[in-house]
Design goal:
Chain lengths: 81, 250
């Protein structure tokens, strides 16, 4: 152990500000990067799930339109006959 | 070797492999980094000239050499993607760029915080410092290009070309302390065979270096996983995975 007590440790022989600035900046940058990279997984999943939902909705609407068109056609044919 | 490597060109296999790798890498990172940092901060001796400010070394040097190492890895991935059109190489290059940028920023910030007490200035337009700053801008350019296009293949091509052109900066950074008269000191650690450092300073450095390198691997794996999912969003296996995931959450 290079330090006698805690305030010696914080003081770093007079270089405390520079040492803790370096370690603090590194810790901050790396923590932010790690958290955002980890959170990105769920974000991507939510994004794809949302897109899939939209696609499903569009497909349903298309099917419904097709059905209605056919119904209209048969109704029209009946009238003509 | 190709037979062995070939399945990893499949995004699904790579995704699951990365998932399996992550807990092991994370555990190793935690072990090495905690040993290295505690050793560096508490037990390593102070430098006879620089006193305790020398402890900045244990972050500054790993960050600086990793910032260059990540760039070289990114350039290799970019080359593979441009020549063999391997889409996963693009995904890995995109995953590496932000990590490299973060480590370059750390190298610059810790360098400034070390330069102020030792040289008397936060910043000087010296060869080593300027070329490292250019590396940061290269990384930012690559990140911007990856995000600039909706079409990820086009984005990968543009970013890859910038990456390969930027490789010229790496030897400039590496040899800047020899080619020019700079304020920055020469290499202490990597003199092959005979590092000009005492062993009680070298060992904590080795632990810190391995710890940071493992942390780089962890973050790149996390980002690589996200890139694979985002780039394969219409594939059935991704759809299935997401179905499972959203069912579990609700």
């Amino acid at each position: 152990m290079q330090f006698n007590n805690f305030s010696d440790f914080i003081n770093m022989g007079g270089y405390g500000f520079y040492v803790w600035l370096s370690f603090g900046a590194a810790a901050l940058i790396l923590t932010l990067l790690l958290i955002s990279s980890k959170a990105g997984h769920q974000q991507v999943i939510t994004k794809i799930a949302k897109r899939k939902k939209r696609e499903d909705k569009l497909r349903q609407a298309k099917d419904l339109r097709k059905q209605q068109n056919e119904q209209n056609k048969t109704a029209l044919n009946e009238v003509i006959e | 070797m190709w037979k062995w490597l070939h399945p990893y060109a499949n995004p699904e296999v790579s995704y699951h492999f990365t998932n399996k790798l992550l807990p092991w890498l994370s555990a190793l990172t935690a072990i090495f980094l905690s040993i290295g940092l505690v050793w560096a901060l508490l037990f390593a001796p102070a430098d006879y000239q620089q006193g305790h400010s020398f402890r900045i070394f244990y972050i500054h040097v790993p960050a600086a050499s990793l910032s260059m190492g990540i760039y070289v890895a990114m350039a290799i991935a970019a080359f593979i993607s441009l020549v063999w059109q391997l889409k996963l190489a693009d995904a890995s290059a995109a995953a590496m760029a932000p990590v490299g940028a973060a480590f370059t920023a750390i190298a610059l910030i810790t360098g400034a915080a070390w330069g102020k007490p030792m040289w008397g200035t936060w910043w000087i337009w010296d060869a080593r410092l300027t070329s490292e700053l250019i590396l940061l801008f290269l990384y930012l350019g690559v990140i911007a290009l990856h995000n600039a296009f909706e079409d990820k293949n086009l984005a990968g091509k543009a970013a890859g070309i910038l990456t390969l052109v930027g490789v010229v900066n790496i030897p400039i950074i590496k040899y800047s302390v020899e080619w020019w008269n700079t304020l920055h000191q020469g290499s202490t650690v990597s003199k092959l065979g005979k590092p000009s450092m005492s062993l009680d300073m070298l060992w904590p450095f080795i632990f810190c270096f391995i710890g940071f390198a493992l942390l780089v691997a962890v973050i790149i794996c996390l980002r690589f996983r996200n890139e694979i999912l985002a780039r394969n969003s219409i594939r059935p296996w991704v759809r299935e995975l997401i179905q499972k995931n959203t069912v579990n959450n609700t």
